[in-house]
Specification:
The chain is mainly alpha-helical and about 325 residues long. It contains 13 helices and 5 strands. The protein has 2 domains: about 210 residues, Rossmann fold (3-Layer(aba) Sandwich), CATH 3.40.50.620; about 80 residues, Tyrosyl-Transfer RNA Synthetase. The longest helix has 29 residues. The radius of gyration is 22 Å and the shape is elongated. The protein binds iron/sulfur cluster. Iron/sulfur cluster (SF4) binds next to helix 10, helix 11 and helix 12. The site of iron/sulfur cluster has 14 residues, from helix 10, helix 11 and helix 12.
Amino acid sequence: MKRILSGMRPTGKLHIGHYVGALENWIELQKKYESYHLIADYHVLTTTLDSSNIYENTLEMVMDWLAAGIEPETTPMFRQSQIKEHSELFLIFSMLITKARLERNPTLKEQVRDLNIDNIIFGHLGYPILQSADILLYKGELVPVGEDQVPHVEITREIARKFNNQYGIVFPESEPLLTKFSRLPGLDGQAKMSKSLGNTILMSDNKEELTAKIRKAVTDPQKVRRNDPGHPEVCTIFTYHKKFNADEASEIETNCKSGALGCVDCKLKCATKIDEFLSPMREKRIIYENDKQKVVEILHEGEKIANKVAKATMDEVRQVMKLG
Ligand code: SF4
């Protein structure tokens, strides 16, 4: 069974955009591959130096992973900061790539724009090196990514090649596992659902909370009165219907266009469907919320497995580098 490595930065409770954009895939992939899930807590420091919430945010995120269906028995989940070998391999890898190559990384400019960064710190420039260490420490053969992340995997492959040529073969040349990552628009109609934009529905929101949010969501601005014909193709709520209420989407489209369906009713229907979808996950999450020690134990178990693999890889690295 091939091994895959995927990770997320711990930013606290996840929203349904995270579910659609990543978790849903992870749950499918864990059936076919040996999956390792990294909690990229050091990566958080590239955008904020405040580390005081990282641990709490980690637990919140892991509870959402578990609630969504990531299986801790077969899928180790572990924190980057608890496996010292990440930093060690990052240091060695940073000797194998030039500054110019990192600056050519096409995703760097996008990240700088998206994250609103004025001055690039070294940690940000070196982000793909740490990612390479994250992947190669576990000899991840496949990395599930969307098209936009393929350049990062290419850097990982280059580093692996350079290391193997220089010192001896230790690392696989990881392949991108191109995955169709869907993106949900935010409640405000922006293309992306994002916590920093305040336009999210959390996976843990209860019915009242998510209904209140959906009531305020942006719809077709031309559909002012109930009977006005609408344009579902420009409406955020319709995108949610297509994902969470696929069986009725076609009927909703027809009735929106004809003016038979008003936005208030349509939104309520949407809220009900999303609530039905999230309800089993919420119930599972509550069990973990009431037993956080269990979550900590799951992390510790995952870290034991990750530690063993990481140590074995670093032993090989030291051996081929003749570091004694
Ligand atoms: S009726 Fe529904 S799909 Fe049509 S514009 Fe209103 S909220 Fe959107």
